[in-house]
Amino acid sequence: xxxxxxxxxxxxxxxxxxxxxxxxxxxxxxxxxxxxxxxxxxxxxxxxxxxxxxxxxxxxxxxxxxxxxxxxxxxxxxxxxxxxxxxxxxxxxxxxxxxxxxxxxxxxxxxxxxxxxxxxxxxxxxxxxxxxxxxxxxxxxxxxxxxxxxxxxxxxxxxxxxxxxxxxxxxxxxxxxxxxxxxxxxxxxxxxxxxxxxxxxxxxxxxxxxxxxxxxxxxxxxxxxxxxxxxxxxxxxxxxxxxxxxxxxxxxxxxxxxxxxxxxxxxxxxxxxxxxxxxxxxxxxxxxxxxxxxxxxxxxxxxxxxxxxxxxxxxxxxxxxxxxxxxxxxxxxxxxxxxxxxxxxxxxxxxxxxxxxxxxxxxxxxxxxxxxxxxxxxxxxxxxxxxxxxxxxx
Amino acid sequence: xxxxxxxxxxxxxxxxxxxxxxxxxxxxxxxxxxxxxxxxxxxxxxxxxxxxxxxxxxxxxxxx
Lengths: 394, 64
Hints:
The structure holds 2 protein chains of 2 kinds.
Chain A: E1 3-7, H1 11-22, E2 28-33, H2 64-69, E3 73-76, E4 80-84, E5 89-92, E6 97-99, E7 102-105, E8 109-111, H3 125-134, E9 140-144, H4 148-159, E10 163-168, H5 175-178, H6 180-192, E11 196-199, E12 203-207, E13 210-213, E14 218-220, E15 223-226, E16 230-232, E17 248-249, E18 255-257, E19 260-262, E20 267-271, E21 276-278, H7 283-298, E22 311-316, E23 319-325, E24 332-339, E25 344-351, E26 354-361, H8 365-376, H9 381-384
Parallel strand pairs in A: 1-2, 1-7, 2-3, 7-19, 9-10, 9-15, 10-11, 17-20
Antiparallel strand pairs in A: 4-5, 5-6, 8-16, 12-13, 13-14, 18-19, 20-21, 22-23, 23-26, 24-25, 25-26
Chain B: E1 2-5, H1 15-19, E2 24-26, E3 32-34, H2 41-53, E4 59-62
Antiparallel strand pairs in B: 1-4, 2-3
């Protein structure tokens, strides 16, 4: 194998490229990125960068020296436009064709948008800088979508002195992900600070002076941020023969086809630890899956299923939220440590008869680790959360 | 080799501890702390794994 192409130059693509080199691959290694920038970190975009606490230089994932050490054929600012599986070539937007012996797809996601012009989204450094330029005391910001990204941006804008309105279609923000009770706890942080949260409203379009709700009402704003989720970047794979269905469909080895793997936000793979197919848009998963895909690609005889415990964190106001596992589709939530009213607690999530996730707010790491361990070992709900109390001696 | 940690970049994920428990720990706020600055050959793979999985790119290995 002398030519490996990694399409996508963010966290997953970079991790894949680094791992290929660490594992001894010394052939041509092409890293393709649609943005003109060297790999940079995205989580701070809605946190420190938006708050103007950090400047863009701090987001670089690697120093120029570290990147140079990877001896990459770096193709930045040139999105991949098509894949020819049979020919083993990738076509780029600059008109060049890149041949490969093996391919890793890490093209990530892009924000969903609403009809109408002029709204901000928050995915790239340019997006974040454009929004940051417009945030100032007294400015009216409408955030459409009270998910983690929208909530983080709202918290930053509030701190900068903006008048913030959060619009959310669900009755309780994040309830589908973290459950109603935890969703309410996280929501209370916005309400206490005077953020205007309106739930159960759907936005029809962005207008020149705000957003128009489905019922016709105009919510006025100086700036609008749309944070209503993401779509996997798979259009360039249409007609390639790769299976695409809300992401690039992979097996448990992150393999999509012969000598083709996928990693990061764009990859839908079968996670054997949870016995289901999933697509995870978490920063840590991008790196872990990039590494796993690279290793399996190089060592097909000794390949390993990619069976991680997903992890994400979110910073909102003074809250640090951390979650392990796969919370989506859970059957039950139980507070197992601390007190939600004080915003210091751990909640455990049950799916079927096992513990599938844990979410902590304001808890020390040692209090969280045991729950991660229970999820990683596939512990049953009964043993992890509701241990049988030994009967007292009579 | 010497390990460098930029604590103000740390997001308290604890990924480094999972990768290299002998080299990293976390304080009560979750921020990573270095247990050893100098690491030997036997720990190098674990530290490189920690560098790769750190979601904040807060760890570096420096040749001395």
